[in-house]
């Protein structure tokens, strides 16, 4: 009986000093590849650098969502689409402020485009209605393309085959650089469009007007 008690005591002592099982996973986590954008965080598993503009930036873990009908393909499609829309929006903001409204929109006299929108709304609401109908049609087409592309895997996110100048043909290295530039400029444009809308709603100034005023007020 004493021998059995002694063996049990030795076994318990050995177990107390044995390494815990989770230590292996902790070691793997510490040795995991770090994110290029956030070196203090591990690189998200699905962001392996194969997509244009991918630097491993995903602090909220959105790239891992796959159980609510949204996955990485859908998120990249949304990013490309909104980036392109934002680039057009920023160009339109600046063009109208610097060179005036388009023909037929002479009622939009305000330099601030958020104010100009309401001027058009009050004078020509049919223009807004037509724009909404156009947006609905574009969203329907892009939605079908996105759904079929996710299912077949034959279509890259944001690819509608629209390349009349042949930029994506020929040198693949050049094509990859252009794709990365589109993503980078689209991300910048989304911030710019958000800033133009926010400051227009607050101070009712155009983007160029607000920048010029700020420079004049802060020059030494």
Descriptive notes:
The relative contact order is 0.10. The model is unreliable at 1-30 (pLDDT under 50). The protein has 220 residues and is mainly alpha-helical. It starts with a helix and ends with a helix. The chain has helices at 2-17, 22-31, 72-99, 113-123, 125-152, 172-203, 207-218. Helix 3 (72-99) crosses helix 6 and helix 4 (113-123) packs across helix 5 (125-152).
Q: Note the beta-strand portion.
A: under 5%
- Helicity range of the residues? 55-70%
Helix and strand element order: HHHHHHH
By DSSP (H or I, 4+ residues per run), the number of helices equals 7
Give the strand tally: 0
Report the sheet with the most strands, covering strand number, pairing sense and barrel closure: none
Arithmetic mean pLDDT: 82
The assigned structural class equals mainly alpha
Give the terminus-to-terminus CA distance.
Answer: 92 Å
- Oligomer status: single chain
Q: Which word captures the global form? A: globular
Low-confidence stretches: 1-30
Notable characteristics:
7 helices; 220 residues
Summed up:
By secondary structure, the chain is mostly helical.
Q: What secondary-structure arrangement, pairings included, does this model have?
A:
Layout (H helix, E strand, L loop, with lengths): L1 H16 L4 H10 L40 H28 L13 H11 L1 H28 L19 H32 L3 H12 L2
Helix pairs in contact: 3-6, 4-5
């Amino acid at each position: 009986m004493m021998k059995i008690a002694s063996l049990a005591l030795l076994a318990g002592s050995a177990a107390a000093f044995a390494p815990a099982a989770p230590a292996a996973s902790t070691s793997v986590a510490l040795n995991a590849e770090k994110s290029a954008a956030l070196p203090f965080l591990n690189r998200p598993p699905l962001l392996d650098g194969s997509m244009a503009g991918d630097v491993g930036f995903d602090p909220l873990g959105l790239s891992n969502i796959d159980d609510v009908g949204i996955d990485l393909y859908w998120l990249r499609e949304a990013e490309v689409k909104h980036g392109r829309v934002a680039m057009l929006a920023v160009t339109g903001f600046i063009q109208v402020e610097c060179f005036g409204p388009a023909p037929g929109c002479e009622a939009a006299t305000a330099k601030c485009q958020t104010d100009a929108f309401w001027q058009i709304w009050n004078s020509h609401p049919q223009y807004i209605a037509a724009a909404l109908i156009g947006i609905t049609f574009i969203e329907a087409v892009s939605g079908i393309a996105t759904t079929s592309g996710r299912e077949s895997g034959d279509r890259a996110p944001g690819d509608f085959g629209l390349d009349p100048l042949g930029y994506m043909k020929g040198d693949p290295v050049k094509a990859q650089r252009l794709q990365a530039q589109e993503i980078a400029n689209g991300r910048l444009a989304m911030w710019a469009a958000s800033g133009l809308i926010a400051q227009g709603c607050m101070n009712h100034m155009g983007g160029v007007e607000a920048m010029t005023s700020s420079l004049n007020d802060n020059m030494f």
